[in-house]
Amino acid sequence: MESESKNLLELHDIEAGYGRAALVLRGLSVVVPPSSVVCLVGPNGAGKSTVLKVASGMLVPRSGSIRIDGRDVTGDGPQRMLQNGLAHVLQGHSVFREMTVGENVMLGAFTVSDEKVVRERVEFVQNLFPIVGERWKQLAGLLSGGQQKQVEFARSLMVSPKVVLLDEPSMGLDPKTTAKVFEQVARMRDAGTAVLLVEQNARRALETADIGCVLDLGRVHISGPAAELLADPTLADLYLGGQPSSGTDASTRS
Amino acid sequence: MSASLLLQAVILGVLLGGLYALLAAGLTLYFGIMRVVMIAHAAFLVLAAYLAWWINREMGIDPLLSLVVTVPLFFVIGVLIQRLLVSRLKPLTLTMMSVLLTFAVALVIEGGLGFLFTGTQRRIPLSYASDSLNLFGAQVPVVKLIAFGLAALSLALLFLLLKYTRFGQALRATIQHPEAARLVGINTDRVAGYGFGLGLATAAIGGTALSLDATIYPSLHWHWIGPLMAIIVVGGLGSIPGAAIAALVLGVAQSLLQLPMGPTWAQTVFYIALFLTLMFRPQGFFGGRLAKRF
């Protein structure tokens, strides 16, 4: 009962896979509380991206349930999930390259019909990501990788989502830009949007996250406050590429 | 070769290129949205030309008025083809299989036209068929000007539709990143259906424009599909402005080459351009940055 009111998004005992191939997720459960960043880490093939695809309705789970604000939304497709309050930012670059930054952001509000709300959201995302306003009329494909990511974030926030799903936001970015992207993730949370994050760059992501979940073989192996996971030496060895050497230059071994 | 003859060839080439641009626009849309190679596009052009001719013969009205019927009709047929046939192809082999599928559709249309109207060559008797205007000293047939005007108007409308309407935005987003388009709430299946319909609607206009100035027969589409395919490859697959530029360039080239080589050999310019493109710039000459631009 309590968990229903506390958590924005709950995935419970999810089993999912692609086509007739073996299951990727085997009884996975994850919860996202309000105004928090939850980070899924784990080895390649653990099913991290699949969790997000299930949550955003791109992949219908074979069993298990998805709840948003306590309401069962299992089986809803991408459009319905968007209306339910989940926005998904894909891995790699997913801006509409040959459209302007403005057109990209406005397409984020494709399902929003109230023009006043759209105007407010444009202002909101321009404040959160100043680059969006500065480059409004430029082709999105001409921006740098980090800037494109911000356009994607801004696009996903146009529907005022309850939870944003971020798939490997630092992929292909240099360390400096990566740091900036995680800064933006924290700003999104501080602006009131919860984030479910999947990252290869586990240590860096856990530094930003509030809650960490270690995925292995399709289920959550360990979960807890991100800071605790970071401090756990065994875990660091197994999943985070060894102990941090010292201070800030800790990065994952790939 | 006199200067006025050259000027005439250039003007006729531009007019022809404009028509090519319209005829190729549909092919670009199908490929851009769905990676479908639509062999039957030219067959639909010929079907539209036949409908214009038939309506003119039965009711005695101007072939341009047939557009009122053929444009919506072709749009609906396009949506149905996408929904009932193309969407059943497996994504992995879609492009290859679409060649076979639409080849079959082309044969059905050709066979149907032959069955209904026989293989006899037809031409719409127009009161203004032999009228011409004097443009900068060159004699330009009125029918070619009408066809060009129709093409320019349709392409301008297509541009405005794609650039400024909600549907156009959704269509471009679907072309550029289908997965991201779904995630912003665009029903990409529906958009693909309407996109196919839009492509076929351009065939209705193109076929009617063609009927003003051409002798038509059921197998005429084989004569057209090669040059049109060459145009979209030279222009950069999926790029509407690219196809339009390639169409104009090749139209003018064909028209100029007709002077020394005659019409049959001038037609080879499409295939030479195609070979050169595949050899030196397989992504097309206007593909890169310009592709998917609107």
Automatic annotation (TrEMBL), chain A:
- UniProt superkingdom: Bacteria
SMART domains from the entry? Answer: AAA (SM00382)
**Xref: CDD domains:** ABC_TM1139_LivF_branched (cd03224)
Which keywords does UniProt give here?
Answer: Amino-acid transport, ATP-binding, Nucleotide-binding, Transport
Look up the coiled coil feature and give its residue ranges.
none
Keyword DNA repair in the entry? The reply is no
**Which InterPro entries does the annotation name?**
AAA+_ATPase, ABC_transporter-like_ATP-bd, BCAA_Transport_ATP-bd_LivF, P-loop_NTPase
Domain ABC transporter: residue ranges: 9-242
UniProt xrefs under PROSITE patterns: ABC_TRANSPORTER_2 (PS50893)
Gene Ontology MF terms in the entry: ATP binding; ATP hydrolysis activity; branched-chain amino acid transmembrane transporter activity
Q: Which GO terms describe its biological process?
A: L-amino acid transport
Q: What Gene3D superfamilies does the database record attribute to this sequence?
A: P-loop containing nucleotide triphosphate hydrolases (3.40.50.300)
Sequence similarity? Belongs to the ABC transporter superfamily.
Q: Which PANTHER family does the record cross-reference, listed alphabetically?
A: HIGH-AFFINITY BRANCHED-CHAIN AMINO ACID TRANSPORT ATP-BINDING PROTEIN LIVF
Tell me what this protein is called. Answer: ABC transporter ATP-binding protein
Q: Organism, per UniProt?
A: Labedella populi
Q: What is the lineage of its organism?
A: Bacteria, Bacillati, Actinomycetota, Actinomycetes, Micrococcales
UniProtKB/TrEMBL annotation, chain B:
By its UniProt entry, which CDD domains does this protein fall under?
TM_PBP1_LivH_like
Membrane topology value: Multi-pass membrane protein
Asked whether the keyword Endoplasmic reticulum is assigned, the reply is no
So where does this one cross the membrane?
6-29, 36-55, 67-86, 98-118, 138-162, 191-212, 224-250, 262-280
Record-level GO cellular component terms: plasma membrane
Q: Which protein family is named in the record?
A: Belongs to the binding-protein-dependent transport system permease family. LivHM subfamily.
Protein's recorded name = Branched-chain amino acid ABC transporter permease
Species annotation: Labedella populi
From which lineage does this chain's organism come? Answer: Bacteria, Bacillati, Actinomycetota, Actinomycetes, Micrococcales
